Structure formats: C-alpha cells, structure tokens
Automatic annotation (TrEMBL):
Gene3D superfamilies: Alanine racemase. HAMAP family: PLP_homeostasis. This is Pyridoxal phosphate homeostasis protein. Keywords: Pyridoxal phosphate. InterPro entries: Ala_racemase_N (IPR001608), PLP-binding_barrel (IPR029066), PyrdxlP_homeostasis (IPR011078). It comes from Neobacillus driksii. The modification N6-(pyridoxal phosphate)lysine is found at K35.
Amino acid sequence: MKVAENLIHIKQQIISACHKVNRTPDEVKLIAVTKYVSIDRANEALEAGIINLGENRDEGLLKKWEVLGDKPIWHFIGTLQTRKVKNIIDKVEYIHSLDRISLAEEINKRAVKKVKCLVQVNVSQEDSKHGLASQDVLNFIKDLRAYENISIEGLMTMAPLTDDEEQLRTCFRKLKELRDQIKNCNFDYAPCTELSMGMSNDFEIAIEEGATMIRIGTALVGVAGEEE
Ligand SMILES: *Cc1c(COP(=O)(O)O)cnc(C)c1O
C-alpha cells in the first residue's frame, strides 16, 4: 500500500477516536515511525504530507538525515545510549526516551538549542521495558530543574503487548494522570503538556485516553520488504 492510502485510513481512525471523546484531531500529532523502512519510503511519507518522523536508533536516524535533512521534524523514540547523544542532538527536535539523570546531563551538555524531551515511563512495570517507574517520575523531573537546555514537554510510554483493551486503557490512563499531576506543578522548565502514547495496534484507544502524540510504524509506512 502507498503511504498516502494508509494515511487516509489512519486519519479517519484518528477523527473517529477523537469524535468519541470530544477531542479535535488537531490535538493529535502523528509521528510516522520509519525505523523498519527505506529512505525512499520515508520520503514517500513526507510527500504524502507527514511532517513528523520517528527513529529509534542513532544509525537509522543518521542515514535518513543525510538524505532528508531537516525536511521532517525528527523524533528520537528509542533507548538512547549516553555516548550516542552527540550524534543526534543537533538533528532531532524531540527525544521521547529520557529515563535517567546521566542522559539528561549529556543532553544538556551537548545541546545546541533547547531540547524538547519526554520522560519515558514504564507504566506497565514490565521488566523488558525501559523507562522510570511511575512513582519515581515526579522526583526525577524535580531533579531536572538544573538542566537549562532541557524542556520537559511531556511523558511517553509503550503499552504492554496485549489485545486486552482494558489493560491498555489502564496503562494510558495512568500515564495521563501522572502527566496531569506534573503539569499542575507548573514547573517553568516542565510544561508537560504532551502524552506520547499509542502505536499501530493501540493508537485509537490511546487517543481516547488523551494521547497528543501517536507513533505509528507498521500501519502507516509498513515494514521492510512489505512496503508496496
Ligand atoms: C517501533 C516503535 C513504534 C511503532 O511501532 P508500530 O507497532 O510499528 O506502529 C512506536 N514507538 C516506539 C518507541 C517504537 O520503537
């Protein structure tokens, strides 16, 4: 399928999910996750009108950045090793995976302008997932006050791999509660308005629960070898 065709379908799903809960589709930023696909396919997404691209590894981001440059707004969505920060810092607008102070320190040190970060939370407490435990997030964000080049734009999570709708909803709801709690603290360096949650299999539920950024790979650009 062409990206443009997938996009029509996904936009309809975004609209109907928003409609269900009285939100407007403008509140939901669509990030096309291009980690599985070629540079050509990523470019096709841009030509279809997508603005935000997400990559989860520095190598993948760099390869695509060499060709696409600053045409898209780049989101780094994967686990970020501290020593890789310098490779991506001047290319990305958002880092969705801030999960430790040592990483914040390095981002702050290497920043060429204010870096928009989201704190990754392991809401579902799965050992396999990165991110802070929910109960540690507020203190972690308080500790980020010292880093003047970092702005905490919101929270990010990956839901458990399940078809159980209630389990997914609970996860997204918990992230939103936590986001609201931090937002209400009114820290000037942490507006914390964004909720990055929802992927190919669960983005409609995520939108119903308040997502402001959805990260979609498979359903939008496909996976390698199945792009057409
Ligand atoms: C791969 C990935 C996605 C997209 O996953 P799909 O199921 O292909 O939509 C979203 N977020 C993160 C952090 C990812 O690594």
